User: Fold this.
Amino acid sequence: MTRMDLEELSNSARIILEKNWKEGFTIPTSKLYPFQWNWDSGFTSIGLSYFNLDHAIQELESLFSGQWENGMVPHIIFHSENEKTYFPNFDFWNSNVNLGAPQKPKSSGITQPAVHGFVLENLLHKFPDNDKLLAFAKSVFPKMVNLHRFFYQYRDPEKEGLTFIFHPWESGRDNSPLWDNSLDRIAIDKDKLPHYERRDTSLAPSDERPTSYQYDRYVYLLTLGKKYKYDERAIFEESPFLIQDTLMNAVLIRSNDSLIRIGERFGFDIGEIREWQSQSKKMFSEKLWNEKLETYVVYDLRAETQVLHKEIGGLTALYAEIADEDKAQKLNRYLLNLNENGFYLCPSFDVESPLFDSKRYWRGPIWPQMNWMIYHGLKKYGFDETANIVKSDLIELVSKSGFYEYFESQKSVASNMTTGYGGGDFSWTAACTLDLLKGG
Ligand code: GLC
Assistant:
């Protein structure tokens, strides 16, 4: 690509981010996701900082305006109660059954990966002396620590150092095959499940979206949370779905590191974060590594077993610098093999598994924000060749097909396509591409 092409791509990314800005926060894409999403906003804030630091700050501020008393930051903040095109909307979540949920803004009752610590560090790195950012960082720091405390207090009640999710949506990888067996154990009684109508399948092709079998189970788990007033203790005791996820924990660990460094700079007390960190890193490597598969895997707390699949969450251990040299080499080799075998990096699921589906959401396609984290992880270990493939594959897909939500992972299939999958003009795709072009 020429410098001109790259300039044009950065420009288009900026235009998308400006278009998706809605007075104080950014939507991931119009129609399909018309509110503020938690981890999307983190990546988006990094993108915004290239041309509007005020907006980058506001993005995080708006997100934390939805924080609950127990420290949780919800996965969706419904800043508008008039937008009716989304399911499950704020009224279905009814999160105010929990007295610690703010009356305004309304929110969902589950969370998403805690990217905010490393996002804040990214902004501070770019603007180390900006007074407004420094003031914001100092005011948001305790809120971020509070969020991490939520994870360690309520999502790790046995004090193992690893936190759990109770809904696949919390992992950010909604319909990954990782959750299939655990969801299969939930028997659905249709008469007891509240009536609901999906909206996503009228806005995107249904063969790119989760199936209705899966959706019933998502609604079941949501309803279970609501039934227990989103009380974390009760959820831990009652939920049939409790998983210690690789991505959730790796992102939390990566953000712990960032909060430690930020706290040191400001002279804040970071003893508690250091304690979480030393236990988490160790446990992650001990409990989630699978030597036969040569990757990190998720752990099903209800079935008391590792879930034996290679998938993209395990690779984020690189970004959190959890892997030792030997494990890192294995993860790097896994990616190089895929590259040699006709795949874009990084497919979200094991391409050799019968469950792989290069088109369906988290069951195989390429996801931009994942490439962003894995790129930075590989760089940390000095795997520059692989890192550059991860970066250039994403840039190639975006420049060829546009700023889609996610992309085809098989090169032979993608070569006949002119678009990506899911929503178009997507915020995290624009933000991550912009950052990789400018800074990465
Ligand atoms: C989908 C993704 C999730 C993301 C959301 C908004 O639900 O799986 O990770 O946060 O869309 O983009």
Notes: The beta strands are 36-37, 76-78, 106-107, 164-165, 243-244, 289-290, 295-296, 299-300, 305-306. The chain is about 50% helix and 5% strand. The two ends are 16 Å apart (CA to CA). The CA atoms of residues 86 and 221 lie 18 Å apart.
